[in-house]
Write a structure and sequence with these properties.
alpha+beta; 50% helix; 5-stranded antiparallel β-sheet
């Protein structure tokens, strides 16, 4: 009798120590024991709850649900877990069989655990992940995440599309699969910097699926685990290929402009020297007109000076510093003159071909300006060819243009 009393008191103390409602039902589904948390939850003293049949202290709907789970546990002798919500709170209910001395089921124990906070936290996490996923999927920049072995663990649609792949094709691939050997050397050093915890912004050259270059601006950050170890990196990636091409063209244009300024300065100074040389040659020719042996030598000096003057005019035309004078001009001769200079300034991958019509009439124009137009057209064509092999063809021909066609050619 004393032992039974002690066991009952120990059981009650254990039940009261639980912060969640707990109760014991016999096979007739009569409440044999409960705890203070249960009494507080239903709003009745514990002394009134013990002995209640069929969970009469609950609402009929709630009592019916719990009795059904309790009966299932009694019949199967197996634990039953079910969830329910009431009054804005969420519960996980554990129903355990109570075994007698002979191993038969003598009743069930029920504990209702309030998981409202956990469910809310899980829902908030799901909402946060959903928002992040939406933001990442819809942002303009590409997002690329790699693991500690530099394998792709995440990309958004923009990143995959930037290099010509689908997301499924991208995932699981090494980041080195999207670059050539030279770029890989740079990327391996970048990874070593991430492993040291260094974040940075830099430009990088990737390979598109169709094997063309894609230049991108990356803002890259390392990812660390709970213990501070390196577990990967994530990068925001912006396609700057078009900007890069424009910058290269601008740089080339600046180089040509600088070359033009240099050529113009040299030509201007050289022209001044030639003027003095030709003047002195003319004076010398008059002075030695009676000494015919010296005249051939002076004639040779004049021819050399005149040839140098023609070259100077070409340089002045290239630099845009030649004088403006209209006169009958042989267009084919101008193109032929300029072609010698053009071969030195166009792309080494480009080939210049000249195609002249026969019996082309002269035009009234400024030869210097015509040279400049020809140079601009050919250098623009050279820029368009870039590093690819190509042919630039300059042709002359006669065309008859009526007023309508002339009007259509106006800018």
């Amino acid at each position: 009798m004393v032992e039974t009393s002690y066991n009952e008191r120990a059981l009650q103390a254990f039940l009261n120590a639980l912060t969640e409602p707990a109760l014991l039902l016999d096979r007739e589904l009569t409440l044999r024991a409960g705890n203070l948390a249960l009494a507080e939850r239903v709003g009745l003293p514990l002394t009134e709850l013990v002995g209640a049949k069929q969970m009469s202290f609950l609402s009929p709907e709630m009592a019916h649900s719990r009795l059904a789970h309790a009966q299932r546990c009694l019949d199967s002798a197996q634990p039953v877990v079910f969830e329910d919500s009431r009054a804005g709170r969420h519960f996980v209910n554990h129903v355990m069989p109570v075994l007698g001395d002979q191993g038969s089921v003598t009743g069930v124990a029920i504990v209702a655990i309030d998981v409202t906070r956990r469910r809310r936290a899980e829902q908030m996490m799901r909402d946060s992940e959903s928002r992040c996923q939406t933001i990442i999927s819809t942002c303009v920049e590409g997002v690329w995440q790699i693991d500690a072995e530099s394998m792709t663990s995440f990309v958004n649609p923009q990143m995959a599309s930037m290099l010509g792949y689908s997301i499924d094709e991208f995932l699981g691939k090494s980041m080195y699969d999207f670059m050539d050997d030279k770029a890989r050397e740079v990327a391996e050093e970048n990874v070593r910097r991430r492993q040291r915890g260094i974040s940075e912004e830099h430009d990088f050259r990737f390979k598109h699926k169709d094997d063309r270059d894609v230049w991108a601006s990356l803002s890259t950050n390392p990812i660390h685990g709970a213990d501070g170890e390196y577990i990967g990196a994530v990068a925001m990636v912006t396609d700057i290929t078009e900007r890069r091409v424009l910058e290269q063209r601008m740089l080339q244009s600046q180089k040509l402009e600088s070359l033009g300024v240099l050529a113009g300065g040299i030509a201007h100074d050289f022209n001044n020297l030639l003027v003095g040389i030709l003047a002195n040659v003319s004076l010398a020719e008059r002075m030695v007109s009676q000494q015919t042996a010296a005249l051939p030598l002076l004639a040779e000096v004049r021819r050399a000076a005149e040839a140098a003057a023609n070259l100077t005019n070409e340089l002045l035309a290239y630099s845009g510093k030649g004088p403006f004078t209209t006169e009958p001009v042989d267009l084919q001769a101008v193109v032929a003159e300029v072609s010698a200079l053009l071969t030195a300034v166009i792309s080494k991958h480009a080939r210049l071909e000249l195609n002249f019509a026969s019996n082309l009439p002269a035009i009234v124009a400024d030869a210097t300006q015509v040279r400049q137009v020809i140079m601009n057209l050919v250098t623009n064509a050279s820029d368009a060819i870039g590093d690819e092999p190509g042919t630039i063809m300059a042709s002359t021909f006669v065309a008859h243009l009526d007023p309508g066609r002339l009007a259509g050619m106006q800018l």
